Amino acid sequence: MRQFPHDFVWGVATSSYQIEGAVDEDGRGESIWDRFSATPGKIADGTSGEVACDHYHRWREDVELMRWMGLKAYRFSIAWPRILPLGRGRVNPAGLDFYSRLVDGLLEARIEPVVTLYHWDLPQVLQDQGGWASRDTVGAFVEYADIVSQKLGDRVKRWITHNEPWCISVLGYANGEHAPGIKDWSQALAAAHHTLLSHGQAVPVIRSNVRDAEVGITLNLVPAEPASPSLEDLDACRSFDGGFNRWYLDPLYGRGYPKDVVADHVAAGRLKSDVLPFVREGDLADMATPIDFLGVNYYNRAVLRSDRIPESQNAPRTVHVSDDKTDMDWEVYASGLTRLLVRLHQDYAPGRLYVTENGAAYATGPDADGRVRDTKRVHYLRTHLEASLEAIQQGVPLHGYFAWSLMDNFEWAWGYQKRFGMVYVDYATQKRIPKDSAHLYRAVVAQNGLDVELAA
Ligand code: FCB
Fold it and tell me: Which of 89, 126, 284, 373 is the most buried (most CB within 10 A)?
């Protein structure tokens, strides 16, 4: 029997801007994603989160879907501009009330609410003052965390400060693919620092507002492998792992910034010297505030080939990366999840781990009979759940799994073209149709194990 621990937390994840819509309702302020989406050329299909899944109005139906799936938990994020339309200062009670009603609805359905405070929709006013590149945003985030945890802390026990600081800083401030669309490495590194600092400073505030709180952070982590055993490829692998994974993990676990990566940044001209200009006394201790769990978002691995040797010389030694890819062009590689979880347990010993996101984009829509046969997603889900179980069997304290995502939604710079949902959304009618993967997940949750079959 391939069974999960009896108290394993089965959930799904979403985020506010990707599903809510209702961007102008009940006093919500502008977010950086409203501004970015409205800028021509930024979103592949020219869309925005203006309506999205209309979850703001249809949340009851969405909670019903989760109840039908038998889920134990739901990870969603709070839209900061609904709570503080101007970033700080005046609180908008209608915004808080929306999430308060959602939390009550979830608890009635016996689904545990798991809150992410920041999943990328920064109030635009704060961006106008520098956004995450500015140290003032740290204090603003702590105030926001205080307000939300005071309001919901009697009912919400599991808190995630930030979702994916790598995406916030690098996609937002270095390559500009995400809001606010800035291309400046010095701002990106400052943004990463301020994000982690605001996390560390918010943790004790949340704890003081919430009895029995479990507080953590979610990172997107990508296990790295060298394309060949050459020294050059090994070094490319070290460098990638350093910039993507260790730059965030090391400070969170009290090791400060990794020196080899600082040197890489200096060599690449991203830093002027090995003195990080944005680090002040006490910051490293704040960033390393002990947390209760680490949230891991896993989608794929990276296979690294050095650009220091000409491709023609290196190519024959390059490992073949499988053609099995999702619509994001991301390789399907389930054992990377086991490897990643084992490594985190060995290198950082986070105590508790959750997979806070894992999933796949495939466009599959309804057949003539109305059923959505998303066979590839079913396969992805099965193999990644097997990989999660394998990690548990190897001793990793993995306590839960949150599939990305409950339903198709606004996939950031890709717009609505990439469908990650276990529930299909017909955007013209807002009709929801559970895909085969939702049926599979429902069966897995009911059995708390993987020996389940889908109806043909
Ligand atoms: C993650 C994001 C999430 C979603 C998935 C596909 O990086 O946290 O919002 O876009 O990727």
Answer: 126
Is 402 touching ligand 1 by the criterion CB < 6 Å?
A: no
How confident is the model over 184-229, as pLDDT tens digits? 999 999 999 999 999 999 999 999 999 999 999 999 999 999 998 8
CATH number for domain 9-221+331-447, candidates 3.20.20.80, 1.10.10.60, 3.40.50.10840, 3.30.1360.180: 3.20.20.80
- Looking at ligand 1, which residue's alpha carbon is closest to its atom 9? 15
357 has catalytic annotation = yes
Is there a contact between 432 and 384 (Cβ–Cβ < 8 Å)?
A: no
* Residue 400: partners with Cβ closer than 8 Å, 6 or more residues away: 8, 9, 10, 11, 72, 73, 354, 355
Q: Which two tokens stand for residue 77?
A: 């994020």
List, in sequence order, the alpha helices (H) in 112-158. 124-128, 136-152
Ligand 1 midpoint to CA 444 (Å): 23
Would you tell me the crossing angle of helices 375-393 and 335-348 to the nearest 10 degrees?
30
Please state whether the predicted TM-score (pTM) of the whole model is above 0.85.
Answer: yes
- Is the shortest distance between the CB of 118 and ligand 1 below 6 Å? no
